Amino acid sequence: MARRDARRDRTPLERQRGRRRGRALAGESGLPKYVPEIALRSIEGHLTRTGTQVMAWYRLSAQAWSFRSDSQREVLIRQIAAQLGELQGRWLHLRVTTRPYPVHMWAESFDHNAMGRLPDVAGALGWDGFLEGEQRHLMGLSMSDKEVFLGIEVSGRGMLDRWVERAAPVLGKVAPAAVRAELAALATEVGHLDSLVAGSGLDAVPASADDIAWLMHRSCSLGLPAPRTLSVVPGGVTRWETEDLAAFTDGVEMYQEPYAPTVRVIGRLRTQTVSRNVAVLSLGLMEGLRIPEVDDPWMQHSDRLPFPVDWSARIYVRRPEEVAGELQRQMGKVRSQIRHYTHDHDLDPPMSLARQADRVLEVEDELTTGLTQLNTRLYGWWRIAVAGKDEAEAVSRAQQVLDVYRPKVQIEHPEAQYRFAREFIPGEPLASTAYRRRGSVTWAASAVPAATASVGDRRGIMIGETCTATRRPVAWDPWLAQEVRRASGLTAVVGGLGSGKSFLTGLIVYKTLRSGARWTVLDPSGPLAELTRLPELAPFSRHINLLRADPGILNPYRVVAEPRADHFADEEDPERAWRRERSLAAATRRRLVLDVLTGLLPYDVSRLPHTRIVLLRAVREVGGATDRHPGQVIDALRRHAREGEEHAGVVADFLEERRELPQAALLFPDTSRDDPWHAERDYRLTVLTMQGMTLPRPGSPREEWTDGESLAVELLNLASWLTQRTIYDADRNLRKGVALDETHFLSQVPTGKVLIDRLARDSRKFNVRALFASQLAGDLLRVSGFASLVNAVFVGRTDDEEAQGEALRLLKVPTDVGYEQMLGTLSPRPRHDDRPDDTPRQFIFADGHGGVEKIRIDLEAPHLEHVREALDTNPDASRVATRAVSGRSAAAVRAPDEPAPRGSAVPPHMLRPAPGRERDHVMLGDDLDDEFADVDDPDELLTVNRPTTGSTRGAVNELLDDEELDLLGDADSGGDDRHPTDDNGGGHSAGQGQERVRAVGEARR
User: Fold this and answer.
1) Which helix (H) or strand (E) holds 603?
2) Less CB within 10 Å around the terminal CB: N or C of the chain?
3) What is the DSSP secondary structure assignment for residue 985, as one 8-state letter?
4) CB of 147 within 8 A of CB of 59?
5) Cα(427)–Cα(411) distance, integer angstroms
6) Helices (H), strands (E): how many in the chain?
7) Residue 145: enclosing H or E segment and its boundaries?
8) How far apart are CA 475 and CA 473, in angstroms?
C-alpha cells in the first residue's frame, strides 16, 4: 500500500519517466530511414541488387569490324549468338555509353615513356610546351571511347530471399551452414557466368569498381556532359551500401513537362549547374538486313553521328519450351487461315500466308535440329538517348538518328519520356512493353554492340584520328613491338605521289625525337632536311648532302658496319657468334661491291656472263675488309688484263670512265684522309639527302636507264647501307629509327633486298623502328620474307588496281571483297577548286597487333604550326618573296653540320680559315658545269682557298662552330626566367603559362 501511495503521489513527469523505465533507448530507431530514389539497393563487386533481382555486370571488349572478311565477321556473330543462347531464361541489360578520351592519362603515360628526351633549347618549343599543346589540341577535338556493359540476371529475389539477406547476421550465428550454402550457390552461379561471357565473342570481364561507378554516374546523370576526370573509387572499396547510392543520385534532377518531346536533366558539374534536354527513342520495325554481306551492325550506325549516343536494351532470352508452344499456336492460326481460303472459298491463299507458314516451319526446324544456342529466340526493347543544350537541339539530334537509320530501320519517338529515360539506370523497371522486338539470338548478335575502331595504343605519339564509323585518337609507340611484344620493328609506308608519305614520316620522326629517340633519315629529294633547321632540333641535328660530301663517303667497304663484340654478349658462345657475323659482314661487302660495280657498267656489258666472272675474281682478290675501296678492284682488273684476261681490261676501262663522273667520286675515297664518316658528336637526327640526283622512272626496265640513272640507283643503295650503319654504332638498347625513302629501287638490286631483310631481322635485337617508304607495295613484297616480318603498315592513296591488291596483302587484309576501291578514295582531291590541296592525308593503318583502321593524319595543333610549314612540300612561288623580305639569316636556323648554301651571304670572318683549321676540300656545286670544272682542274689553279696542309676539318666546319656559338649567345641573352615564345603559337607568355592544363602538372609529377 505504501508503495502504491508513493506512486500515486508522484508528479506527471515522474510517472512518464517511470513508464519509460525498462524500455530500450532511442538510438538508431530515432533516425530517419534513407530510401534511394532508384530501385537499386546495394552494389557488391560487379553484382547489383534490387528488391527483386541480382544482376552481374560485365564490360565487353572492343571488337574490330573494319577490314575483316565476311567469314571472320560471321564467325564473330555466331560466337556472340552462342554465348547469348546459353543465357536462356535470364534477363539481360545492355548499356552502351561513352567516356571522354583520357587525355591526362595519355599525357602521363607518354611523359613517363619519353626516356632520354631532348633537352630544351632557349627560345624554342620546350618539352612542357609541347606536351601541353598536345593535350590542349586533344581536348579541343572532344573525342570519346565507346564503353559497352552487359548486366546478366543471376537470380530472382522473392520475399524469402530478401528476408534471408536482412537476417543474414543473425542466421549466421544460428544456422551458419545454411547461410554459407546459399552464398556458395550464388558464387558458383556467378563464376559460371564469368567463364561463359569471357569466351571469344563477347570477350567480357567482370566490371571493376571504377566501371560500376562510371556506369551509375552516366545513367543517373543521363545526357549531362561527362566529367573528364571522375574521382577514382578508393582502393579496396567494392561495396556500396544503400546509403552510399546517394552519391549517384544527389545533385541530379530529371523531370518532364506534360507532352514534352524531351526530358530535362539538371545537375551539378563541379561548381556549376548544367542542364540538358534528352530525347529517348525506341527501335521500331526493321526489314531484313544482310549483315555482314551488305550492311554494318545496326547498333554501329549511331557511331557515325557527330554527337554521343547512349543505348539501353532490356532483353529476355526465352527457353525452347516457351518458343515451341508459341510456334504451335502460330502455326495453327496460319493453317486455319489457309484452310479458310482453300476449303471454304476455293481460292488460292495469299503469298504472305504461305511465307508466314514457311517461316514458322523454318523456325521450328531450327529449334529441333540441335543448334539451339544459335537459334534460341528472344525479345527485348532497345532505347536510344541523345542530348542537347535545349529542346530544339535535342529534337534535331533525334531527327538525325532517324535519318541515319532510314529506310531499313524505323526509329520511334514515344511519349512518357521520363519513364523511358529511367530505363537507362541499372535496376530500374521497364517503362512500357511497347515497341517489343522479337528475333533470334543471331539477329541480336548481328548488332555487335562492341564494334568500334581499335588501333594503336595509349602511350605513344599522337599521329591522328580514326575516320571510319567511330572517331577516336590514334596514338602509336613505334618501340612497343620490340620492347614489349618481342616483334619486328619493320614498317612499310606505301602510297602514290602526293599521298602524304613524306609528311607522315616527318611527323613520326619529329614527335619521337622529342620523346628521346635517335633517327637517321635517307631522303633523296630532301624535304625532310627542313627538320634539322627547326630551333628545338637544330643543336642536335645534322644535314649531309651526299652529292657535296667528301670523296669516298659511300665507299661500299665502309658503309657496311663492322660487328661489335659487345653486341653478342648474350649469345651462348659470344666469340663464335661475333666471328660469324664478321664473316657475314665481309661477304656482304664483297657482294655489295660486285653489285655496285656491275650497276655502273652499261647494260649490254653488265649482262655478259664473262663480265660477272672477271668482276667476281677481282672482288675476291681484294677481299672484304673495311680498309678496301673500289679503286683496288679496278687495279686488280688491270693486273688480270696484263695476265691475259682481255675482258678484264675492257671492264676496267668502262669503270675508269664511270670513275670520272663527279658523283662517282663518292665511291672512291681519298686515301690521304681519314674516314669521312667519323661522328664527332652524338647527333640525335641525321638527314642524308641527294638533291639533284635523277632516279629512273619506277617500273622502267633496266636497259632503258641512262648512265646517270644507273649511277643514282647504286648511290641510293649505298646511302641506304650507310644509313643502317648507325644502328650498329650505337648502344643496342637505345631507341633508334631509320627512315628510307624511294625503297622501291632497293628491291631491284640483290644487296638492297639483303639490306631490307637485315633491318627487318635486326630491328628487334637492336631496338630499331625501320620505315620503308615506297610508291608500290609490290616492290616490298618482292623481297623474300618481307610480308611475314613487317610489323606496322601505312597505306595511302593508291589508284592502280594491281597496286591496290598488293597493298591489301601487305596490310594482311582480305582481298577481292571490296576493300581495293577504298584505297582509291583516300584523301579525296577537290575537282573544281583551284586552291592548293593541303587537306590532311588519310591512310589505312595496321598497327601490327591486329588493329586495322582508316586514319587521318593530324598535325594541325597550333603549337606545331612551324613543323607543319617545314614539312609542307607543295610548291608555292609566294614563299620566295616571303623569304626575301623576312630578314632572317639562314645561318640562324641551319643545323650545325649543314654546309652553307651557295650564294648565301656569309660574313667575311667566316671565310677566313682559322689558324690550323684550313679548308681541305671544295664543296661541289649544284650545276653540272661547276662540278666538271672542279674535276678538270687537277692543278687547282681555279680553286679558291684550297689548302696545301691542314687537318681533316675545313672552313665549313669552322663556320658551323661559329654558328654554334651564335646560337648559344642567343640562348644566354634570352634568360632562363622567361617563358619561350614564338610566332607560330608554340610557346606561351607568362600569363598563358599560369593557365596550363592541370593534367600537364599531374603528368610531370
Assistant:
1) helix 603-606
2) N
3) S
4) yes
5) 25
6) 38, 25
7) strand 144-156
8) 6
- At CA 85, angle to CA 80 and CA 90, rounded to 5? 115
Residue type, 160: L
CA distances from 444 to 369, 379, 436, 543, 909 (A): 20, 9, 13, 59, 80
Judge contact between 489 and 768, C-beta under 8 A. Answer: yes
Mean of all residue pLDDT scores within the chain = 79
β-sheet bridge partners, residue 774? 494
221 CA to centre of own chain: 31
Q: What is the DSSP letter of 978?
A: S
Q: What is the Cα 80 distance to its own chain's centre?
A: 26
d(CA 913, CA 908): 10
Copy the grid coordinates of residue 77: 556473330
Q: How far apart are the first and last CA of the chain?
A: 84
Strand partners, 602: none
121, 535 in Cβ contact below 8 A?
yes
Compute φ and ψ for 807, nearest 5 degrees: -65, -40
Q: Which residues contact 464 (CB under 8 A, 6 or more apart)?
A: 473, 474, 840, 855, 856, 857, 858
| Spatial distance between the Cα atoms of 40 and 52, rounded to a whole number of angstroms | 10
How distant, in Å, are the alpha carbons of 222, 285, 308, 311, 417 from that of 420? Answer: 11, 18, 18, 12, 5
Identify which of 84, 36, 50, 313 has the alpha carbon closest to the alpha carbon of residue 156: 50
Closest CA to 464 of 773, 137, 822: 137
Cell numbers describing residue 579: 666471328
DSSP conformation letters of 270-318: TTEEEEEEEEEEEEEEEPPP-TTTTPPPTTGGGGGSSS--EEEEEEEEP
Sign of the alpha-carbon torsion through 960, 964, 965, 967: positive
* Distance in angstroms (rounded) separating the CA atoms of residues 108 and 125: 19
Residue 205 neighbours by CB under 8 Å, 6+ apart: 58, 59, 61, 198
* pLDDT tens digits for range 954-970: 333 333 333 332 323 33
For 779-824, write each residue's pLDDT tens digit.
888 887 888 889 999 999 998 889 999 999 999 998 888 888 889 8
Count CB neighbours of 219 within 10 A: 24
Name the 3-class secondary structure at 845: strand
pLDDT confidence band for 876 (50 / 70 / 90): low
**Grid cell digits, residue 690:** 641527294
Would you place residue 687 in the very low, low, confident or very high pLDDT band (cuts 50, 70, 90)?
very high
Higher local confidence (pLDDT), 345 or 538: 538
Q: How far is 818 from 300, CA to CA, in rounded Å?
A: 20
Ramachandran class of 737: left when φ > 0, alpha when ψ lies in -120 to 50, beta otherwise: beta
Closest CA to 95 of 384, 315, 311, 383: 311
Alpha carbon 164 to chain centroid, angstroms: 52
What is the rounded distance in angstroms from the CA atom of residue 618 to the CA atom of residue 637?
6
How big is the chain by its Cα radius of gyration, in Å?
37
Cell 644509313 found at: 723
Cis peptide leading into 292, omega within 30 of 0? yes
Paired residues of 146 in beta bridges:
98
Angle separating helix axes 103-113 and 127-141, nearest 10 degrees: 150
Q: Is 635 exposed, middle or buried (0-12, 13-18, 19+ CB in 10 A)?
A: middle
- What is the rounded CA–CA span in Å between residue 940 and residue 921? 11
Is the torsion defined by CA of 953, 956, 962, 964 positive or negative? Answer: negative
SS3 of residue 44 by DSSP? strand
Q: Which amino acid is at 411?
A: I
Please, are residues 524 and 693 in contact by the beta-carbon 8 Å criterion?
Answer: yes
Q: Hey, what's the cell of 596?
A: 655496285
Cα torsion angle, 643, 645, 648, 652, sign:
positive
For the record, the C-alpha cell of 603 comes out as: 647494260
Half-sphere exposure of residue 718, counting CA atoms within 13 Å on the CB side? 33
445, exposed or middle or buried, with CB in 10 Å at 0-12, 13-18, 19+?
A: buried
